[in-house]
Amino acid sequence: MTHAVAPSASPSRPIIRPTERVLFALNEHEREAFFPDGVDPLPDAETRWRPDGPLAPGAWAALLEDFQPTVLVSCWSTAPVPPWLIEPGSPLRYVCHLVGSVRSLVPRAYLERGGLLSNWGGLAGDNVAEHALLLALSALRRQPAWLPLIHAPQPKPWRNATMRLRPRTLIGRRVGIHGFGHVARALVRLLRAFDVEIRAFSPGVPAQLMREAGVVPCASLLELAHGSEVFFGCEALTAHTRGSIDAAVLAALPDDAVFVNVGRGPVVDEAALIHAASGGRIRVALDVVSIEPLRPDNPLLLLPEVILSPHIAGPTYDRFTGCGQHALENLRRFFAGHPVESRITPDLYDRAT
């Protein structure tokens, strides 16, 4: 790990600090994952790393007040930015977030006063789509019911596991996708190998963009749900999409349909989803829920064939170094006065959770 060294003091001349001061607010595990080879000194910038180990009460505020960062490189363990760094005139100009969600880190007021914010952006799309496909295949093949059969006494030859489980294939299915951003478009590419019929709905997305991807556009969520044997939720969260997958939409899915959500939990009316899943009419596989982490009393945990993953659809561990390099490239662009990539605008901020 390379750390910047402060210039030595001179008795006759005060230390002149660089204009840019970059604070890497990562814990030791995040450093190893995202920057396994360390970080070379950044030109014309003073760099400091958050101390290893848990921060004592008040240590985060003291670190920020002492260093006065102009740039903050943040990750999951980074504590929220205090209000004084959000106010106009504060030194903080750029928050370079290594991962996805930013709402617990900085308030919208930071963007409103002109602060710059970025995250891993489109780097997550392919991996989230891959995970969505995994969930759909697991639900179709009834993966939660495998273990009891593996441990049960061998059935008679004519009552083999396939006859008892009645798994289904994805090949040739009618697929519906709610949303048409990076994840949905990556999912369309993966689904082509299964010779499926794909339809999609996403408010504000031009129908022509879907047609160019070989996808049939739908005029509403209800239209999309009708006939979708496998339904993927990939939509962003907005005031209009919150709770939009309601009881009526879920009722429109065919019997034994598979419902997958890798978008945002609050897009779905969770009570309606639990009701639909508890009766066994549809199969459910979720990477996101309304309140995360999942509460111990959430009824989803009691449904035997609901597949739950702990919000891990984003970039896999082996992709973290690429996310780190993406952040470093953004820092170089920022210092050179060029636009950064994967910038979070107020509109994108409002769509996140």
Structural notes for this entry:
The chain is built from 14 helices and twelve strands. It has 353 residues and is of the alpha/beta class. It has two domains: 135 residues, NAD(P)-binding Rossmann-like Domain (Rossmann fold), CATH 3.40.50.720; 185 residues, 3-Layer(aba) Sandwich (Rossmann fold). The strands form two sheets. The chain has a seven-stranded parallel beta sheet. A five-stranded parallel beta sheet has the order 2-1-3-4-5, with helices on one face. Helix 5 crosses helix 8.
Give the secondary structure arrangement, pairings included:
Layout: E1 20-25, H1 28-34, E2 45-49, H2 59-67, E3 71-74, H3 83-86, E4 94-97, H4 108-112, E5 116-118, H5 125-140, H6 146-151, H7 161-165, E6 174-178, H8 182-191, E7 197-201, H9 207-212, E8 216-217, H10 221-225, E9 230-233, H11 247-252, E10 258-261, H12 270-278, E11 283-286, E12 307-308, H13 320-335, H14 346-351
Parallel strand pairs: 1-2, 1-3, 3-4, 4-5, 6-7, 6-9, 7-8, 9-10, 10-11, 11-12
Helix pairs in contact: 5-8
